[in-house]
Amino acid sequence: GISVVTHQTLESQRAWSMELYRVLRPKGVAILSFNGEFTLSKVSDRQVHSVMQTGFDDSHRDANLDGFIPSEDYYRLTLQTRAHFEKLFSEYFDVLDIIPAGCASVQDLAVLQKK
Predict the structure, then answer these.
(1) What is the CB neighbour count within 10 angstroms for residue 46?
(2) pLDDT tens digits along 6-21
(3) What is the three-class DSSP state of 3?
């Protein structure tokens, strides 16, 4: 899942983690990219402050898909700390590794294994 959770609300990420759990076989592996601490150097101070306080920020709409999807509020610029990502996805997965800037030298990569 490259650059998927990077554009989802918290609710969408929770739903997506449950769906990944459902479709993966036992001990199956998923690799996801996310906008973690590495990406924070490329965004506004306000976004950095929000992420560092709460661990997660999905408050910024990404207009790149305007006109292509029904809801202009769905597609976000989503940022989160490594700790937040691990907490969210560890309900269904073991977090085997997180590789900072492992995806195109921009997004962090998470290697997850279904519990």
Answers:
(1) 11
(2) 999 999 999 999 999 9
(3) coil
In which element (H, E) is residue 83 found?
helix 82-89
Q: How far are the Cα atoms of 62, 82, 108, 110, 114 from residue 102, in angstroms, in the given order?
A: 22, 13, 5, 9, 21
pTM for the complete prediction?
A: 0.88
Dihedral sign of CA atoms 8, 64, 109, 53 in order: negative
Q: How many Cβ atoms are within 10 Å of 115's Cβ, its own excluded? A: 11
| CB within 8 Å of 107: residues ≥ 6 apart | 2, 3, 6, 33, 34, 35, 36, 38, 39, 101
d(CA 6, CA 104): 14
Exposure string of 86-96, with b = 16+ CB inside 10 Å and e = fewer, is: eebbeebbeee
How many CB atoms are closer than 10 A to CB 71?
7
For residue 49, give every residue at least 6 positions away whose Cβ sits within 8 Å of its Cβ, in sequence order, or none: none
Task: Provide the β-strand partners of residue 80.
Answer: 56
